[in-house]
Amino acid sequence: MLTLSMLLAACGDDGEANGESDSSGDGSDNGEESTEEPETEGPELGQKELTEPYVAWARETVSTEMLKQLLEKAGYTVEKKQVEAGAMFSSMADGSADFQTSTWLPATHKPYWDKYGDKLVKVNQVLDEAPLALTVPSYMDDVNSMKDLKGNEELGESVGWEITGIDPGAGIMQNTQDAFKEYGLENWELLESSEAAMITELKSAIENKEPIIVPLWKPHWAFGVMDLKMLDDSKKVYGGKGDQIYTVARKGLKEDAPRAYKVMEQYDESYDMINKLMPKVHQEDKPVEDVVKNYLDNNQDKVDKWLDGIPTE
């Protein structure tokens, strides 16, 4: 009995020395619940498949892919759909699409917002100043404002009284039609084409130092490689200093896909970022998927900000 008592005492001493006794007070092995806060799981995934309509404009091509890849990191499957501007808004309003990051307000997309805005939600402003205007090469010394177009026979005849436009559903095309009325430009005609075709015509004119007038906006890579100037718009038909650009979602997406909505709330842009990425896609002809992936791989601080509190898969 004496020997047994000594053995039990020795075991007790070893347990205390190893920190296994209840008297250690850490509660690690005594059945007590830990007081540490559980690790947060972030917003729920919800609806896993999302549809993102977009128009293949310069910035939008990059921004659409950027948000797509961020959402895929958060666990979603995102299908991009290239559409016309009207369909971009109507598809979200009827619920067949979920979000886009291409809404220019208050001026450019006002007609679409007036028509569909009650079924849509502004999630986040991604750029705070995006000016639009009729634009000419800087060597056109005598053309500096919209007023310079009125009754300008020499200019009108040199370009056939034509302004080389983009796709007809674009907001800037409607702005230009409104500008014709505001500035009394009855002799002028706005040609419909596409952004790519317009840029081709602009490049050709500059190479030959010929006059040309086009609708353009910032951010756009053309301003980084061509010497251009926007015409002064005293009547602010094009929105004055510029629109703001928003990520917009259909109503109900916040409840259907909380994690995706949170990513959209945190995603923003800078002129520096967009101006660096657009030329890689539109001048160097690199796949936008590769350009965006490379940016995300090499800018972890940005990714951490955009995905703060978001579980990644």
CATH class of the largest domain: Alpha Beta
Mean pLDDT: 88
| Rg | 29 Å
Q: Kindly state the percentage of residues in helix.
A: 25-40%
Q: What about the largest sheet?
A: 3 strands, antiparallel
Straight-line N-to-C gap:
61 Å
Order of helices and strands: HEHEHEHEEHEHEHEHEEHHHHH
Strand content: 15-25%
Oligomer: single chain
CATH architecture of the largest domain: 3-Layer(aba) Sandwich
**CATH topology of the largest domain, which one?**
D-Maltodextrin-Binding Protein, domain 2
Structural class: alpha/beta
Give me the number of helical elements.
Answer: 13
Shape field: globular
Give structural notes.
The strands form 4 sheets. This protein has a 3-stranded antiparallel beta sheet with strand order 3-10-4, sandwiched between helices. Strands 8-5-9 form a 3-stranded antiparallel beta sheet, sandwiched between helices. It is of the alpha/beta class and 313 residues long. The longest helix is centred in the first third of the chain and has 16 residues, at 2-17. It is built from 13 helices and 10 strands. Helix 2 packs across helix 12. The chain has 2 domains: 49-130 and 242-306, Periplasmic binding protein-like II (D-Maltodextrin-Binding Protein, domain 2); 132-230, 3-Layer(aba) Sandwich (D-Maltodextrin-Binding Protein, domain 2). Helix content is 40%, strand content 18%.
